[in-house]
Design goal:
The chain is mostly beta strands. The chain contains two helices and eight strands; from the N terminus they run ββββαββαββ.
């Protein structure tokens, strides 16, 4: 029986030199879908890249989405410029940031595979409170 966690649409991989592949991410980290762990030692940026299917609270889903989580590792959050660097490397410049962990150190970016949904905001943007940290550099929703 084929492994259902492996998708015919692979997660994003970084372009450019300097990225180190660190292996497959456990399925419980990626909503049960295929995910890979990357590290960029020059800036100490850690990225988990996956392809997942998420749903809004109302049950709406845009189908498969590229999802990358970016951090500095060891409980440290990357800043907006470091996140932009990783987004460019992974071809995720059109993604939307959506974080839901109070005081979290991972920045989460989502981009639908279906082009007609690229740029669509999650319903949480309209309905949940936005908390700003790091002088507005990082936002998360309740």
């Amino acid at each position: 029986m084929p492994d259902s966690s492996i998708s015919v649409i692979p997660p994003k991989r970084p372009k450019g030199d300097g990225w180190e592949y660190k292996g497959i991410v456990p399925n419980h980290v990626t909503l049960g879908y295929e995910g890979h762990y990357w590290f960029y030692p020059e800036q100490r940026i850690f990225v988990i890249s996956a392809l997942e299917v998420a749903q809004d609270k109302d049950g709406f889903s845009v189908g498969p989405e590229y999802h990358i989580s970016i951090s500095k590792g060891h409980g440290k959050r990357c800043n907006r410029n470091e996140a932009r660097f990783a987004l460019k490397a992974f071809g995720m410049e059109d993604s939307k940031e959506d974080n839901h962990v109070p005081g979290g150190y991972v920045r989460n970016f989502w981009m639908p595979v279906a082009e007609k949904y690229v740029g669509r905001e999650c319903e949480c943007v309209k309905t949940e409170n936005t908390i700003k940290e790091d002088k507005g550099d990082f936002e998360w929703r309740t």
